[in-house]
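lol ok so funny story. i was supposed to be doing the assay writeup but got distracted and ended up predicting the structure for this chain instead. priorities right. anyway since i did it might as well share w the group, maybe its usefull for someone
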Amino acid sequence: MPKPITTIPARQFARDLAGAKRAADMGPVLITDRGHPAYALLRIDDFYALGGERQPSRSLLALMDGLPETGGIDFEPPRLIDQPVAADLD
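and the output, tada:
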């Protein structure tokens, strides 16, 4: 059975994001701008199913670990000369 499509004006979407997310749990949400469809809000599982892709199973950290080495970043912060002093509020 096809999921129902909900249409929400952009102003209502901006005021009630939680309501739009609840509606997206039931099916796609079309967000209109001046009466014309401008955006679509989908659950991530529906998005991956639409594109024929599987949901990535690796974490962001695992993806970053897989990036090629760049040699690191040379950064030497300057030494703090003046020590901070607490404000005298009396």
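The beta strands are 6-9, 29-33, 36-41. The first helix runs from residue 10 to 15.
back to the writeup now i swear
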